[in-house]
Amino acid sequence: MSDVLSQPLTLPCGAMLPNRIAKAAMTEGLATPLGLPTPELETLYGLWSDGGAGMLLSGNIQVDADHLERPGNVIIDREPDEAMRAALASWAKAATRGGNHFWAQISHAGRQTQKIVNPHPKAPSPVKLGLPGGQFGEPVALTAEEIADIVRRFGVCAAAVKEAGFTGVQVHSAHGYLLSEFLSPRSNQRDDQYGGSLENRARALLEIVGTVRKAVGPEFPVAVKLNSADFQKGGFAFEDSLQVARWLEQAGVDLIEISGGTYEQPRLLGVEGMEAVEEQHVKQSTLMREAYFVDFALAMQEKVSIPLMVTGGFRRRDAMEQAITSGGADLIGLGRPMCVMTDAPKQLLQGLEELPRFESQLSFFPPWLSFLGRLKALKPMAIFGVQYWFYAQLDKLGRTGRPEPDMSVFAATKLLMSLQKQIL
Length: 424
Ligand SMILES: Cc1cc2nc3c(=O)[nH]c(=O)nc-3n(C[C@H](O)[C@H](O)[C@H](O)COP(=O)(O)O)c2cc1C
Description:
- It is a single chain.
- This protein is an alpha/beta fold.
- The chain is 34% helix and 12% strand.
- The chain contains 12 helices and 13 strands.
- The chain has an 8-stranded parallel beta barrel with strand order 3-4-6-9-10-11-12-13, surrounded by 6 helices. The chain has a two-stranded antiparallel sheet with strand order 1-2. Strands 7-8 form a two-stranded parallel ribbon.
- Helix 7 (238-250) links the parallel strand 10 and strand 11 (255-259).
- The chain is globular, with a radius of gyration of 20 Å.
- Flavin mononucleotide binds at residues 24-27, 59-60, 105, 172, 174-175, 225, 259, 268-269, 311-314, 334-336, 390-391.
């Protein structure tokens, strides 16, 4: 067994991560209706902190209460009051008790805000999500003043989490949320300084990175989660991602996390959406096939020299080790396995060969109706249903300290719907 995963990683700002495994951001839905962190979040992150990861990323922390990715998100949309300061500090204390880093993922959901939160969410342009089911509203284009306000809010949020004891921040610019919408010519059809050329489409992100850096100072980790591509025709392509990565490096970002896809094309979960996957021009390696984005990271490492975290699909320890020794990844992100096996990093570091692949055993429809999940109108329900199973595991971990892996996807969906109603 190689020891590459247990090697520390020093970031350009000088901070050091104790090993090469990170828990990727996963929305928890465990905050109060006003967006305050709760004891349940402390229980969940305490378990993860005991679980051996060198770094934990929080789920989406939102900068605007009207643009949640989901009810139950933590919300920091202003200078925190006393109650918010205390709740953030307790959360950070629990999440760092194992000596690991704990970074806040800061986000704005843009047009991927559910209708139950906001029927007219703000977005770069009034381009509606192409999903059946009526879960998302009609977006309204942001004005330049509103964009400036969002940029400011990211800075306020970053300063607040730093003060509370978080040890880093990540700007969420992937997965079809607001900043990823700005990057894509499909969802950004503006003709002002925030639309058109790639430089203009990346402007909001780069302004936010500059504001966040100013808010936290030069020695605090600032990361960005970036799509390798949206995998949609006419969307944000890998060539664009390479250029944005170069700009982020020049802007002094410490780490880029590579992911990919959107709600319309959920490649982040290794799933194909409503339309065919738009293949990208990248050399295919045969070595680490299970990891969805490692080939992109390998190609990106040739263009930038800042550390890359790669998330999506990693389950075998040898694939993780190879991703690091080949120079593709500096840090391995783990998501779904951590929803049940909270100490997956510790187990890997102690020699476990492979993590469970819960996603390959889960299905919204029973086997005899599995064809329904392939129908266009029902596909999103099948994908979201499986995702709700993971949400339900996080909910159980936070409330009881234990997952419930025997729960069916259908029962998890029902649970999530009722929790959502309680919080709204
Ligand atoms: C339950 C769940 C919640 C997620 N929430 C977020 C999130 O808040 N922010 C984010 O950037 N990605 C989120 N993701 C995506 C993960 O960070 C990760 O990119 C994805 O799960 C692929 O990694 P995996 O194959 O190890 O699960 C979520 C994924 C899951 C399963």
